[in-house]
Amino acid sequence: MKLASWNINSIRQRHTHVQQWLTKEQPDWLFLQEIKCQNEQFPKEIFEEMGYQVIVNGQKAYNGVAILSRHPYQLNHTVLPDLDEEEPQARYLEIESQGVTLCNLYLPNGNSGGEEGFQRKLHFIDALVKRADTLLKNKQDCIFAGDFNICPTDQDYAPQTLSSDDALLRPESRNGFYRLLWLGMTDALRALYPTETLYTFWDYTRGAWQRNAGLRIDHALLSPRVAEHLTSFVIDKGERDKEQPSDHVPVIIEF
């Protein structure tokens, strides 16, 4: 089975990128983040013609997540069950397919909105940890994948790309990532490449791509039984070198 995750940074601007990539890679599931459109604006027909079922949790102009699935599915949640927000942003989508609970997430960056914005990030992390804990206690195979907006260690960002007080690095953010690992989730990339410096995001400014001044913020966390069957993790860097690319590239796991 092959699952991919990609912060596409506007599906309407880059649906051709996704279409071409799907033709090449043929994943069973593709998680998309930052689709930046409402549900009815998502170009479903393009992907349905390719054999994918399309599940969308959109929002006007910002955020938004979607899952493309080759397999039958059951929709579980469009908001994290324990996330207490008056106006929840479109940042989560959970389905069950082929016996696995698949959780697509776009975690708040945490740098905008001052301390209130950072607290919103921490609330999302708390709800994510609770959801993972529930699934693991129920012995449910699961995958949490997407744009976490967290660099777990200093190895996960190029020197001088971020300040020490950036929300992607703050101890509270990193602790949230570790809490998921302490529950029993496995960081798929580090399971296979424990010491390599690898990135999934390169900013559009200051020649970040050309200088390889990147970040590793797109992750896939696996429950124990899924982790036992992990066979590969690939970062498709070639997508970043294309015309009008997303600033993120696809990450692909096979199990």
UniProtKB/TrEMBL annotation:
Span of domain Endonuclease/exonuclease/phosphatase: 4-248
A GO term for molecular function: endonuclease activity
UniProt site positions, description: Transition state stabilizer: 149
Cofactor(s) the protein requires to work: Mn(2+); Mg(2+)
InterPro entries per record: AP_endonuc_1, AP_endonuclease_F1_CS, Endo/exonu/phosph_ase_sf, Endo/exonuclease/phosphatase, ExoIII-like
Residues that bind Mg(2+): 7, 34, 147, 149, 247-248
Keywords carried by this UniProt record: Hydrolase, Magnesium, Manganese, Metal-binding
Keyword Magnesium: yes
Residues marked Important for catalytic activity (site): 218
Record carries keyword Manganese: yes
Cofactor binding note from Swiss-Prot or TrEMBL: Probably binds two magnesium or manganese ions per subunit.
Record site feature (Interaction with DNA substrate), residues: 248
A GO BP annotation: DNA repair
Active site location: 106, 147, 248
A Pfam family recorded for this sequence: Exo_endo_phos
Family that this chain belongs to: Belongs to the DNA repair enzymes AP/ExoA family.
Protein name: Exodeoxyribonuclease III
Organism of derivation: Commensalibacter intestini
